[in-house]
Amino acid sequence: IFPHYTSLILIYLLTSDLSPLPCQVILVSSSINERDQLLFISTDEGSSFQRQPLSFTAETLLFHPKEEDKVLAYCKEGKLYVSMDLGRKWTLMQERVTKGRIFW
Asked: Residue ranges of the Sortilin N-terminal domain (predicted)?
């Protein structure tokens, strides 16, 4: 599925209490190189993916526990980004964030 990328950094799955499906949403953060970062988004259990460029390197992704379109992304530089549309658009939320202190 991701043949030309140097590394696949993160895979996160989201399940919904309302859904009988084991996995509805899959986000894969990938890097071609240090400059070109991508997020692959699947909302159909991995049958298909949409590529979304990122302006930062995501180290950790955290889904909102109740609102599946909301995602937090922590990057190595200590910045925290938020997406309200499942990773299609990101907004810098805060700088100088400690990795172990990320939560909704």
From this structure: 35-99
